[in-house]
Specification:
Length: 512
């Protein structure tokens, strides 16, 4: 009875207003319009001035409870409602779906916010099919995003002079990129950069995996259409520093002493040819001293001028662009100079061998000439002796002619001449060897009378030591042949003995 009186009083109060601001129609709908369409419809502003200004919405049917915005022309401008089954709170713009499938914002029962996604799985879950996922903009301050841990700022994301800057506030803080929990890139607080490792070795430390040097290591790529690139690789076993160009091995720096050794493997080469003679071309090279124009040390260098070398050994010089510009510069492979030097030494060695052979031949000829000269001197001396004997003989003959009646023929004695039979068949003869001197073979002719019992030939050195004795069994005219090797080289004498009597001694020269 009391509630009816109160309701009647409210209706009487409202009926006294000149214009209905609050109306209850027969459907049980209350609204601020002539014909409200929903259970509670407000046109214009609404204020709650109580000490606990809550607007409570309740669904008695279990359906979603919320607020729906409409206009005179649009039935669904937006909706804010709660799903009692999931506890998710949805905010739908330009539409209305009872299950929140088209909601732009979703707050779930765990406090997670979904933007563009109605089932968030993280504190902030954003789904966007457009170009930008998150758009941060500040009209004044440069700081766009700040990161805190337990109330302490750890880092910021800011925009300064069109530069995007990520800063770490901690003095020992590091900026890291991780993949599956493994740190792949670290920027330390002092600016050192570590890639592929957390073990700092220097300002920039890059770690690569074992395997093919053409596929691992550090790659420097030219982004031009040709796709030229170099790979730098450290061998795990030898620690040698290896170079690859577009996947092809080019050389290595030795870990032992840092020496660079370019590829010289036969398997990497084709069209291998013998290098032509180089001595004449080497003589055209001009070693020079010079200063480099851009060398701040001002040191003097020694070397060659590439353009000059190109005229003699074009294989050593390379002319090409500096960078990818129109500027051209010459470079030179000084390693090839060692190959040219070896070839030149080989040519000099061949020439030296020829000169040595010529010199040896000349020395033999000189030795032969000296021996022949000595022989001629000996012969001349013998001839002089003979001449002296002949002079003495002529003197005896003259004396005989003068005193022919006073001296018989048997009383005439020639000085220094043996009184022997002069018959050719009774006197043994030893002739000079021919040729003399000799370096291959020489003949010695002799004559031994038939009545001789024993005959032999001896060969002695200049000291008189007998080197060889040859028995002669042939009677009459004969000869023997001596070869180089039968007696040592040098000047010797050979003598003919018949029945233990020395017939004659002559000289000969043997040349090896």
């Amino acid at each position: 009875m009391k509630k009816r009186v109160q309701l009647l009083s409210l209706l009487l109060l409202l009926s006294q207003l000149s214009f209905a601001q609050f109306k209850v129609i027969g459907k049980g709908i209350i609204g601020g319009s002539e014909m409200p369409e929903d259970a509670f419809q407000v046109n214009g502003d609404m204020q709650l001035a109580e000490s606990s200004p809550f607007l409570r919405l309740m669904s008695t049917t279990g359906a979603n409870a919320g607020i729906n915005w409409k206009s005179a022309t649009e039935s669904n401008l937006g909706a804010l409602f709660l799903d009692p089954d999931t506890g998710n709170f949805f905010f739908d713009i330009n539409g209305f779906s009872t299950n929140g499938a088209e909601a732009e914002f979703t707050f779930d029962a765990n406090g997670r916010l979904g933007i563009g996604y109605n089932n968030p799985i993280a504190p902030l879950h954003i789904l966007n099919a457009g170009e930008e996922l998150v758009h941060l903009e500040s009209s004044a301050a440069s700081k766009l995003l700040a990161f805190y841990q337990e109330g302490v700022r750890k880092g910021i994301l800011s925009n300064v002079n069109n530069d995007l800057i990520f800063g770490v506030d901690d003095a020992g803080g590091q900026f890291k990129f991780q993949v599956e929990g493994n740190t792949r890139l670290t920027l330390e607080n002092d600016g050192d950069l570590l890639a592929g490792t957390t073990n700092r070795l220097s300002t920039y430390t890059l770690a690569h995996a074992d395997g093919s040097g053409a596929e691992n290591g550090f790659t420097l790529l030219n982004s031009g259409v040709e796709g030229r690139y170099w790979n730098l690789y450290v061998n795990n076993e030898t620690a040698n520093f290896q170079l690859f160009q577009n996947g092809v091995f080019k050389g290595r720096f030795l870990a032992s002493d840092g020496t660079y050794t370019p590829t010289s493997d036969k398997r990497y080469k084709s069209d291998i040819q013998e290098l032509d003679a180089v001595l004449d071309r080497i003589r055209q090279l001009r070693p020079a001293t010079y200063h480099m124009k851009h060398d701040p040390s001002g040191r003097e260098h020694i070397g060659f001028i590439a353009q000059e070398v190109a005229e003699v050994f074009p294989q050593m010089v390379y002319a090409g662009p500096v960078g990818d510009t129109d500027e051209e510069a010459y470079t030179m492979n000084y390693n090839s100079m060692a190959v040219v030097a070896v070839k030149g030494i080989q040519e000099l060695s061949t020439q030296e061998t020829l000169l040595e052979e010529k010199q040896e031949k000349l020395e033999k000829e000189m030795s032969s000439l000296r021996a022949e000269n000595q022989w001629l001197r000996d012969e001349l001396q013998a001839m002089n002796t003979t001449v002296q004997d002949l002079k003495k003989l002529l003197a005896v003959v003259a004396q005989v002619q003068e005193n022919c009646c006073q001296m018989s023929a048997t009383d005439m004695v020639m000085p220094n001449l043996e009184n022997k039979a002069t018959s050719g068949e009774d006197r043994a003869v030893l002739k000079q060897n021919s040729p003399n001197p000799f370096d291959r073979e020489s003949r010695i002719e002799f004559f031994i009378p038939e009545q001789a019992q024993e005959a032999y030939l001896t060969i002695s050195d200049i000291s008189g030591r007998i080197l060889k004795q040859i028995s002669l069994t042939q009677r009459g005219t004969g000869e023997i042949k001596l070869k180089v090797g039968d007696v040592p080289a040098g000047q010797h004498t050979y003598s003919l003995f018949v029945d233990d009597e020395l017939i004659e001694t002559r000289k000969m020269v043997v040349i090896n």
